[in-house]
Amino acid sequence: MTAIVRVGIIGCGMVAEEYATTLAASPLVRLTTCADADPARADAFGGRHGIPATEPGSVLDPNIIDLAVILTPPHTHHALALEAIAARVPGVWSEKPLALTPGDVAQVVAEADTAGILLGAAPDTTLGPAFVTAHEAVRTGRIGTVLSATATLMSTGLKRWHPSPEPFYAQGAGPLGDMGPYYLAALDELLGPLQVHAATAHTRKVRTIRSGPAAGKHFTAQAPIHIGALLTSADGVPVTLTASFDAAATRTPRIELQGTRGALVLPDPNFHTGDVLFAEYGTFTWEPLPPTSGAPRMTGRGMGVIDLATALTQGTAPACTGARAARVAAVSDAILRAAARPHRALLTPPHQHGTAHAEGTTTIAKESTR
Ligand SMILES: NC(=O)c1ccc[n+]([C@@H]2O[C@H](COP(=O)([O-])OP(=O)(O)OC[C@H]3O[C@@H](n4cnc5c(N)ncnc54)[C@H](O)[C@@H]3O)[C@@H](O)[C@H]2O)c1
What we know:
Elements: E1 5-10, H1 14-24, E2 29-35, H2 39-49, H3 56-59, E3 67-70, H4 77-86, E4 91-94, H5 102-115, E5 118-121, H6 129-139, E6 146-154, H7 174-191, E7 194-203, E8 206-208, E9 218-220, E10 226-233, E11 238-244, E12 255-259, E13 262-266, E14 277-280, E15 287-288, H8 303-314, H9 322-340, E16 361-363
Parallel strand pairs: 1-2, 1-3, 3-4, 4-5, 6-11, 7-16
Antiparallel strand pairs: 6-12, 7-10, 8-9, 10-11, 12-13, 13-14, 14-15
Helix pairs in contact: 4-5, 5-9, 7-9
The protein binds nicotinamide-adenine-dinucleotide (NAD).
């Protein structure tokens, strides 16, 4: 492996710009080439970053790149990761989700292991100063023993700001598949592997694109759009998770941990920065925690690629592993299976007696296109 890790970006869309900025700040990696199914996009991205664009069919070549960075829509990650592994590119990084089903994620992880390829998967927000500070506070007992946690993603969804939002509403994506990895990866690192007990989900199918040239166009969401789930950590800590693309606005903390000595609120796990708030038991006052001494100075999507490049060149263990992505995918899948399982309400309010019905994944009958 050369001292400088040659990186090729596959998928030159919105998120690729942030990666390029982060990678440009690291002396360890060099963005060498890029590719996109749309050659004009690859050329434009290459022009902006002073690199040549390569055909998608020939970019996954260890003679050209040491690390493939897959930044395409969710449904394409599985095939591209397998292609990069088969081509023996030494390092493969994928945006989340690594694949749309736990079986496909497990296949990528297993094939990378067998081939001796270093695999990393987003999110890398757990490498940012906010999460590092929060993790340190939990690890060192600042809030005592963790008693419970809530994780709440309440968003309008990507249709408001993304010009091509359809893939983010496809089966396997939605709030759980697309945004859930930020929350589930953070909880996995804070509390350890999670178990799923119960969930409900519903879908308001017809959505409207709100930005870009397709603004006003309607499309159909395939994934459940609002999910509520009850999880526990291996130690039995109860976690209540809500993931929704059907919220107008919210004041609920994104991730809150309650402990015997205090409470901690983490900022949005979709980002690397933000205030970590601590309230000591009995004070009812929230104070921002100063960044821990180990918190990195640099931030931004692409930190995981630099971490993977460090692992490639220095033999360190990568932080955002395929194994973590596999645990996240298994939890997401279990939540959707729990939600789809027909189950009866244990308590029906008196005025509804006689109308109790099997619950599970329901479609709101009268759909609006909000
Ligand atoms: N947009 C964001 O702010 C953001 C933030 C974090 C993570 N992500 C993740 O990054 C990934 C990409 O999101 P985006 O918003 O940049 O999408 P995008 O639609 O803006 O860009 C995706 C690009 O991939 C190209 N592409 C599609 N299939 C391809 C293929 N098979 N081979 C080569 N190129 C292909 C498309 O032409 C497009 O240029 C997703 O997994 C998303 O979850 C996005």
